[in-house]
Design brief:
Number of domains: 2
Shape: globular
Mean pLDDT: 84
Radius of gyration: 23 Å
Order of helices and strands: HEHEHEHEHEHHHEHEHEEHEHEEEHHE
Structural class: alpha/beta
Largest sheet: 5 strands, parallel
Number of strands: 14
Strand order of the largest sheet: 2-1-3-4-5
Helix content: 40-55%
CATH topology of the largest domain: Rossmann fold
Strand content: 15-25%
Distance between the termini: 66 Å
């Protein structure tokens, strides 16, 4: 009875690979925590993904006998029953082109062979938890809509109150009531430790807002800013994670990444909407797991920073067009600061007290 109850509560994985050895390796890694179904070709994978009981997540090899993994993923995305099942690609080592293509087509992640049990279990757990979190967040958003009138009333009330730490906003010039409400909100969330997303049009002062959040948090570390516009995936990884000596050609000495430089402080990621797909998945892992690997290192480091991201882009539209990952958006927007349009922010020095 206990075994039956335990199995009933387990989540389901579909492993797709035509190599029996690989199937056995993955099955042995995962069978204790998940209910496993396997498929050895593309058509079998599609059938088993569509039919009940459906898997909660699919591990999909690229090289299959009847069709490749990209074709399988494409068909899964076109089917109403399987389009929302997360797919993790199984790729060969050093196959960056396959990894990038898979992510652009809608895969949530990739795992390289040979398999590390710790990485396989961590990636699966990450994405199953993200699905659960997204559902909870969407339910919370629906509930929030019913509170909009109360929020509006609260904002009007806050606009009449004095700020507790006006010195944190000394660099920001505005006499807008809407901005004063933003300042109050910043005071409320600055010490939460959760990710903060700042959105607003170009020139609205997003970096100054990030500085204000950092000042309010009274953190021991520094504020480190990085503009993500124009960074490819390698540059993104090197900039944030750093590298060891000899990690790649030209790496003559170790380099500390910005996450390490901001330890105990704030990491400000500007132009988050410009992040390429492969880098989006790396940032998602970082926010979920709170650990990262410098390039060339097998030793994980722990992230101890508050992440603040900003963009002038419409991330909602980008998500609709599959240009920005919804799971990353929900991770980044634990708190969301929406800056009012410059048209309504008169540029006069205000007395914030």
């Amino acid at each position: 009875m206990n075994d039956h109850t335990s199995n009933r509560d387990k989540q389901r994985l579909l492993i797709v690979d035509d190599e029996r050895i690989q199937l056995n390796v993955l099955n042995n890694m995962l069978k204790a925590n998940y209910l496993i179904k396997v498929a050895t070709n593309g058509q079998q994978a599609i059938d088993r993904a569509i039919n009940d009981p459906q898997p909660d997540l699919i591990l999909l090899d690229i090289n299959l006998p009847d069709m490749n993994g990209f074709q399988v993923l494409e068909r899964l995305k076109l089917n109403e029953r399987s389009k929302n099942i997360p797919v993790i690609f199984l790729t060969a080592m050093n196959s960056e082109e396959d990894e990038t293509k898979g992510l652009e087509m809608g895969a949530v992640d990739y795992i390289t062979k040979p398999f590390s049990p710790a990485i396989v279990n961590s990636r699966i757990k990450t994405h199953l938890n993200l699905i659960r979190s997204m559902r909870e967040m969407m339910e919370a958003q629906l509930q929030t809509q019913s509170l909009q009138k109360q929020v509006s009333a609260l904002n009007r009330s806050l606009a009449k109150e004095s700020l507790k730490n006006p010195e944190a906003f000394s660099e920001i010039i505005s006499n807008s009531a809407a901005m004063l409400t933003v300042f109050h909100y910043m005071e409320a969330i600055a010490d939460s430790g959760e990710a903060i997303l700042i959105t607003g049009e170009t020139g609205a002062g997003k970096e100054l807002i990030a500085q204000g959040v950092h000042n309010l948090g009274q953190r021991t570390g520094k504020l480190i800013s990085v503009n993500l516009a124009g960074l490819d995936d390698v540059a993104f990884s090197d900039t944030l994670f750093g590298h060891t000596k000899g990690a790649f050609t030209g790496a003559n000495q170790a380099r500390e990444g910005f996450i390490s430089q901001a330890d105990g402080g704030t990491l400000f990621l500007d132009e988050i909407g410009d992040l390429v797909p492969a880098s989006q998945i790396k940032l998602l892992r970082l926010l979920q797991e709170k650990t990262y690997y410098p390039l060339g290192s097998d030793t994980p480091k722990t992230m101890n920073v508050t992440v603040v991201a900003a963009t002038h882009r419409n991330l909602q539209e980008m998500m609709k067009n599959d240009l920005f990952r919804p799971d990353l958006y929900y991770r980044l927007s634990s708190h969301h600061i929406k800056l009012p349009s410059l048209r309504y922010s008169v540029k006069l020095q205000s007395n914030l007290t």
